[in-house]
């Protein structure tokens, strides 16, 4: 399918549909079409030092916004097969309203997403919006393999696309709307995309639950795919995919090992929550005396608190000291406030909070991991390493075991 040629021809037209598409690819249009993506710097805690790639960037409006909001130190790279789209992107960056120092500019590259002209292990974060539908299965597999190749170990790939529905009639209507200018292959659901991502070599895949999208009013599917850190691999244990160290390889440092260990536990929590029925969500966990929903959200609630503690310990800043009474009171207040918490809210917190916690752990040096301070009144001082092992990983592991016993 010569999608880029179709786009080039379409963008050269003067009709209202082509004009609407050109607007949709601009920054104001992207706010409507890719609404949820504008929160990515906050949701994923994108760091200024990250290298970022946009696959199927179009006019690169979204890439410029992300570069600005995340204060990226190096311009993101935008790849698109359409020469016309990239020319519009270049003109956008050359406008007088663009920053004089070029801080929000994007390095635009014309290329095929199934054969990226980029080196290996370059990017901390890759994303692609509304691109998959233009590929047949073989092309999409090659695209996924190529994206994984250019990703750094331990990095993420976020993708979103229009989704099929359970109504053939509605699917035909949605195709009619989406093919107003450029035809596409087909839409795929989460399960199919998840399988294809694993087939392409990704080590873990989750639903990203990315929303809202304002226009057009067609359902979306989103997923986040991960490449294992150096020295780690994904494997199947008792029917569940888990991360484990590879025999004979040295893991790239203590911090990366701890981050990977935590992410494996967080992934397990997410999978368990996703699989829980409404009845199981309301079941009571005997160990805590709370519902499964409250216990799962209790894990979420702890992530930013523990992350802040880890960061304070690592930087040598003042560390707030907790008492058991204060912790008990906080837990009771949380159980009351979130008695009716939803799975969707909890999953969102597990994904964003888990990613933020893992990133905070990865940034620590060995010296910072060994820094010690009083954390709990009346208890021995703890190192940042011990807080990660006992509070971040240990607490989530213990509550997850309780949830599994209850469902």
Task: Sum this structure up briefly.
Helices cover 48% and strands 15% of the residues. It is of the alpha/beta class and 407 residues long.
Written overview of the protein:
Helix 3 (27-33) crosses helix 5 and helix 12 (292-315) runs parallel beside helix 14. The protein is α/β, with parallel strands linked by helices and 407 residues long. Helices cover 48% and strands 15% of the residues. A hairpin with a 2-residue loop joins strand 8 (232-237) and strand 9 (240-245). It has two domains: 3-227, 3-Layer(aba) Sandwich (Rossmann fold), CATH 3.40.50; 254-406, dinb family like domain (Four Helix Bundle (Hemerythrin (Met), subunit A), Up-down Bundle). Strands 3-2-1-4-5-7-6 form a seven-stranded mixed β-sheet, sandwiched between helices. The protein has a two-stranded antiparallel ribbon with strand order 8-9.
Briefly note the CATH topology name of the largest domain: Rossmann fold
- List how many beta strands DSSP finds: 13
Question: Strand-residue fraction?
Answer: 15-25%
CATH architecture of the largest domain: 3-Layer(aba) Sandwich
CATH superfamily of the largest domain: Vaccinia Virus protein VP39
- Termini separation comes to 47 Å
Count of separate DSSP helical elements: 16
Largest sheet: 7 strands, mixed
Characterize the overall form: globular
| Highest-level CATH class of the largest domain | Alpha Beta
Give the SSE string. Answer: HHHHEHEHEEHEHHEEEEHHEEHHHHEEH
User: What integer is the average pLDDT?
Assistant: 88
What oligomeric state do these chains adopt? Answer: single chain
Structural class label:
alpha/beta
């Amino acid at each position: 399918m010569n999608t880029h040629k179709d786009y080039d021809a379409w963008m050269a037209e003067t009709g209202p549909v082509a004009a609407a598409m050109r607007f949709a690819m601009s920054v104001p249009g992207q706010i409507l079409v890719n609404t949820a993506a504008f929160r990515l710097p906050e949701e994923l805690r994108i760091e200024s030092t990250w290298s970022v790639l946009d696959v199927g960037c179009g006019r690169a409006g979204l890439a410029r916004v992300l570069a600005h909001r995340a204060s990226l130190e190096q311009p993101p790279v935008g790849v698109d097969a359409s020469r016309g789209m990239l020319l519009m992107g270049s003109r956008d960056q050359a406008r007088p309203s663009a920053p004089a120092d070029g801080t929000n500019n994007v390095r635009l590259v014309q290329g095929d997403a199934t054969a990226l002209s980029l080196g290996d292990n370059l990017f901390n974060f890759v994303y692609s919006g509304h691109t998959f539908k233009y590929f047949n299965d073989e092309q999409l597999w090659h695209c996924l393999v190529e994206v994984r190749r250019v990703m750094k170990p331990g990095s993420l790939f976020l993708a979103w696309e229009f989704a099929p529905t359970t109504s053939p009639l509605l699917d035909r209507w949605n195709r009619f709307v989406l093919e107003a200018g450029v035809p596409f292959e087909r839409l795929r659901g989460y399960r199919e995309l998840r399988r294809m991502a694993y087939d392409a070599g990704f080590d873990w895949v989750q639903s990203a639950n990315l929303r809202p999208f304002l226009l057009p009013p067609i359902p979306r599917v989103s997923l986040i795919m991960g490449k294992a850190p150096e020295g780690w691999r994904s494997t199947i244990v008792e029917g569940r995919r888990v991360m484990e160290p590879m025999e004979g390889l040295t893991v790239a440092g203590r911090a990366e090992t701890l981050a990977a260990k935590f992410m494996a536990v967080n992934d397990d929590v997410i999978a368990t929550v996703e699989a829980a029925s409404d009845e199981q969500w309301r079941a009571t966990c005997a160990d805590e005396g709370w519902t499964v929903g409250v216990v799962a959200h209790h894990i979420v609630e702890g992530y930013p608190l523990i992350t802040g503690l880890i960061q304070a310990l690592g930087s040598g800043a003042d560390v707030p000291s907790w008492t058991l009474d204060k912790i008990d009171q906080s837990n009771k207040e949380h159980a009351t406030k979130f008695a009716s918490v939803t799975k969707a809210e909890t999953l969102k917190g597990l994904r964003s909070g888990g990613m933020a916690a893992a990133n905070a752990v990865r940034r620590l040096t060995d010296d910072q991991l060994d820094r010690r301070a009083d954390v709990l009144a009346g208890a021995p001082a703890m190192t940042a390493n011990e807080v990660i092992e006992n509070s971040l990983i240990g607490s989530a592991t213990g509550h997850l075991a309780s949830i599994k016993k209850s469902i």
